[in-house]
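Please check this.
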Amino acid sequence: MKTPRRRLMTVSITLAISLLSAGISFAQETPEAPGSAPVSTEAQVLIQLASDGKEKLLLDIIGPASDVNVSNKAGVTPLHAAAEHGHNNIVKALLERGADIKRRDTRGATPMLSAAKAGHADTVALLLDAGASLRAEDEEGANAMIHAAYEGHFRRLFKRTTGLTPGSCRKRFRIPDFTVSPCRKRD
């Protein structure tokens, strides 16, 4: 049973989407860049709810006819937003509803790259289980582990995704002690 407040919020958001879709505007709009398609209100709302972690509202709004792969001008989808902020329940729900794990934004980033860059190891593991690739590269040629290393999250992501500790990593990959290991803490 829905609480009255949540139901009121769901109805309000649905009404706002309907009014905005009909061309009624509540705020001054920024001019569109030449040649760019306008972003749908549904896309804006779904991405914002995914980014904020509002799982119940998002699931109330997403219906059987909703496209969970809608994107904004930057190519960000609700899955990108949820993965970047580590909202695992939303990531699971979007994947169950057919969200595209290989979809890229305008910078070439996939939801996996967004999650790895932000250091969300559980989200990375969830996306890996769904078939996402750690080797997918953005337009600059960086993959998930490169982003994680650059942001200081490599050890946590490596351990979470491989299950290896620094000692077992050296043994498994036969890394000599005199070499630099990706599992070794640098001085």
Observations:
- The radius of gyration is 20 Å.
- Confidence is low (pLDDT under 50) at residues 25-35.
- DSSP finds ten helices and no strands in the chain.
